[in-house]
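Hello again, I could really use a second opinion on something today. I've dropped the whole record in just underneath, so have a look.
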Amino acid sequence: MENEGFVKSQKENGIATVSFFHAKSNSLLSSQLKQLKKAFDQLSEDTSVNVIILRSEGEKAFCAGASFDELLKIENFEQGKEFFMGFARLVNAMRRCNKIIIGRIHGKAVGGGVGLVAATDYALATKNASLKLSELAIGLGPFVVGPPIERKIGVKDFNAMSLDCEWRSAEWGREHGFYKEIFDTIENLDKAIYDFATELASRNPEALKKLKRIFWEGTEHWDKLLEERAENSGKLVLSDFTKEFIKSFKSKK
């Protein structure tokens, strides 16, 4: 059912758009993570597509990260690891994808949502697209999504985001490499996204593919690295600290 979250994709004029939605601030279920990975895997080999746009639906949050409802249902390490492997497999699918991925970031990104932003090759955003790594406050850490974020903004700023769990403005995101440009309205964002995607779709696909390989050089070990990081989260999500935090957070909603 759509109110439980969905992923959909469409193709037109060499541009594929991958969209996701969840009624709770576009938080991500494990089923959605699998669907997103599948979409990128398929589009990577689709010769009718030259560029991919990643977006979420609605006008508020871009992505609130992992679904708290699903985190509370995790009962053992195997389930915990498997949930966070959803993020690991998605990040790896995005970096391995043969197509350039443009991020359309219209609103706030939290936790795993920040990781999705970092895993795109080029992102444009609105002035409302602030960023926050909240994992430590929950009793976890940005383990799985850490590598693409650190790669995007550098060790110093990743460390600070991880430890203080504070909001960073969209302008901060632009200054530190998350976003190429920010816009006042969603309408202006969409026009810029369309114009840029159309331009890229007209380029030599082999040249774009080779550029993509260069962009992600040095990440070949991430299959193993992100699995190890998923194990960290899979253990910590079982802690009383994390369970109580999530329950307290949900009771205030």
About this structure: The chain has one domain: 2-201.
